[in-house]
Amino acid sequence: MPRFKDQAICIRHLDWSETSQIVVLMTREHGKVRGLAKGSKRQSPSSVQRFSGGIELLTCGEIVARTKATTELAQLTEWDLQDHYYHLRRDLHAQRLALYAADVVNALMIDEDPHPRTFEALATFLAALGEPPALPPGAMGVKRAGQLLRFQWELLDDAGYRPELERDVVEGEALAAQGTYSFVPEAGGFTAGPGPAQWRVRVATLELLRRVAAGDPPTDLPEADLMRANRLLCAYVRYLLDKELPTMRFVLQP
After folding, report:
1. Torsions phi, psi of 152, nearest 5?
2. What are the DSSP E strand ranges found in 122-245?
């Protein structure tokens, strides 16, 4: 029964009993881990010492766990809370984006497949949501839209679904310069030729994704441009999963 210690972000949890929880954690070195935290909700001094009073959704901590070949659930024996991302409890818009991020990580990552880059992208995104934009309710803001776009790109790239930005995925040649393109989800990229009407994409969106891929923070563009790119990547994730996650509406709906 291997024992390990790792940094983890809780991306899903449910009560297993009055005193225990089943959790899904995105860890830095061990990937997505499903675990049973027996006694994590007890209020006895020993339980509070081992579990910091319980494991909450969208919090980060250090876990100690054991895995066993005969069960899909790891046995969590310790949880040391390190960051509760309290700002997500005070800002509804930030909380919705954080829930979307947790949902797509859970859906795209397979169990116990190490993805430290995804862990870092998620942790960075959750922390960045603590800088609330001075905007009316429902508005995204340029900075937050750029952070969301960067997170989605990092996740898709790390999961092996990086969109092709330079080659025409239908013709197999360099992507010809023109005013609009079609995104072909089954091929994972763009074509200059005809494609499904609902996947028509402006050249500005393609250029924006190229900037993100090159590591250039897109913070100097209109929010509308950033959100078009965000909706494209979110729709691509929906295609890959063959279903729409409930939290996708926070990104797909204007």
Report:
1. -60, -40
2. 180-184, 189-191, 200-202
Residue 103, CB half-sphere, CA atoms under 13 Å: how many?
A: 19
State the average pLDDT over residues 117-128: 97
Helical H segments across 115-202, by residue range: 116-128, 142-159
Q: Which of 231, 224, 165 has the alpha carbon at shortest distance from 199? A: 231
Output the CA–CA distances (angstroms, integers) from residue 35 to 11, 42, 73, 107, in the order listed. Answer: 12, 17, 5, 16
For residues 121 and 11, give the distance between their C-alpha atoms in angstroms, rounded to a whole number.
14
Instruction: For CA atoms 9, 11, 14, 16, give the dihedral sign.
Output: negative
Helix (H, G, I), strand (E, B) or coil at 82: strand
Burial class (CB in 10 A: 0-12, 13-18, 19+), 92: exposed
> Whole-angstrom Cα distance, residue 30 to residue 115?
7
Q: Which residues, listed in sequence order, are joined to residue 202 by a DSSP beta bridge?
A: 180
**What average pLDDT does range 62-68 have in this prediction?**
91
Whole-angstrom distance, CA of residue 226 vs CA of residue 102:
21
**Tens-digit pLDDT profile for residues 216-231:** 877 778 889 999 999 9
Determine contact, residues 98/70, Cβ cutoff 8 Å.
no
Rounded Cα gap, residues 228 and 209, in angstroms: 11
CA 22/CA 40 separation, integer angstroms:
10
Residue 136 predicted with pLDDT over 80: no
- Considering the entire predicted model, what is its pTM? 0.92
